[in-house]
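Input.
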Amino acid sequence: MRPILPTASCSSIRSFPSFTTALHLSPQARCHLSSNSNPSRRLALLQLGTVIPQAQLLGVGTKFAGAQESLIETNTNGSFIRVSPTVSEEGAADWVKKDKRRMLHAVCCVGDLDRTIEFYTECLGMTLLRRRDIPEERFSNAFVGYGPEDSHFAIELTYNYGVDKYEVGTGFGHFGIAVADVSKTLDLIKAKRGKVIKEPGPIEGSSSMVAFIEDPDGYKFKLMERKLTPEPLCQVMLQVGDIDRSVGFYEKAFGMELLHKKENPAYKVSMTDNLSLVLYSSATMGYGPEDRNAVLELRYNYGVTDYDKGNAYVQIAIGTDDVYKTAEAVNLFGGKITREPGPLPGLATKITVCLDPNGWKSAFVDNKDFDKELQ
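Output.
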């Protein structure tokens, strides 16, 4: 039996290239591949011509013109690359708000792909959406979720040959799943020998029930009792060192809306029967109401400014109409671009990768290119 979920859409398993696949092809980039894997093709895939700002080419600075095209093309190493002009904060903020964005999926490394897929499908009721094995690059990946990727948030699971264990660290918090009945869902998970780390109980100051479980790789899941929702895989929680700075960054650079903010100066949490006092603040960010969309929860534990991010959780992928303008905005509002915007060799999917002020990674992918991958 599967957990009692508000919804659980099914999709046939598909196998085709993914823009995220190429991001796994470097130890520094995605899943910390073992040193004995062949680096030649991986490194080649990550080589892209230098993107030159228009201001540098023309000697002038221009602003974003809303969402209008204000881009040029330059030939670098035989390929054409679009680049964007210098932007003002006002112009960038205005464009970011108008950009069509959606959280596409989160990327995690796992030690045994078959075992993890079984846990996610049998214990959590997810569907295996697509799977791909790349023996020449010594890795496999699979996408799981509660509905098709063109309309639902998903989790990308990556297995690197020969690597059977990863460290989740203290920075990654949990994934959130909305269920109709927490207690009954937990009973089903226990029957499948799932690991329960917090029995069902009410949220502080609310009658809503929550419980916590852990998957075979150490990723925590928060089961939240909610009414019918089109997006059961509804939350990613990350720890941050400065809640106000983080909220400002995700609002301006990512175009997320602050859905709500919570102060819990004395919240008692019980994990595996150990009672501890947790002082924290949290902010819920997203691209739409959290009862219909996946959201990002940022949590600040008072006095803690740095976390061990481990090497297991990788990033969130977000859709955008223009990766070039996205990169400009991220730089402008305090983020760091770790992969310049442009097409991935061999796939032609345009992406850019960045770090937020806390060091959490996100990848932006061109919406049209992502849709083509799913066809």
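DSSP finds nine helices and 18 strands in the chain.
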